[in-house]
Amino acid sequence: MKHSGLITFLMISGLVLGALFGQYVLFNPDDLIPTNHWTKEVGTLILIRPLMMLIVPLVFVSVTLAMTTIGDPAKLGLLGGSTLLFYIVTMVCAATLGAIIVTTFRPGDLPPETRAAMTARAEADYTASDVVANVEQARKESKTSMGGAWMNLLQQLIPTNVVKDMAEGRTLGVIAFAILFGLALAVGGEPCRPAVAVLEAAFNAILRMISWVMWAAPVGVFLLVAASVGRVGLGALSGPLMWFMLIVIGGVATFGVVVLPAVLLIFGRTNPGRFAWQMRGALLTAFGTASSSATMPITMENCVTEGGCSRRATNFVVPLGATVNMNGTALFEAVAVIFLCQLYGIDLTFGEVLIVVMTAALAAIGAAGIPAAGLVTMVIVIGAVNKALVARGQPTLPESAIGVIIGVDRILDMCRTTLNVWGDMVGAKIMTRLAPDDVEEREKALS
Ligand code: ASP
Question: What is the per-residue pLDDT across 247-270, written as a single tens digit (0 to 9) for each?
Answer without folding.
Answer: 999 999 999 999 999 999 999 999
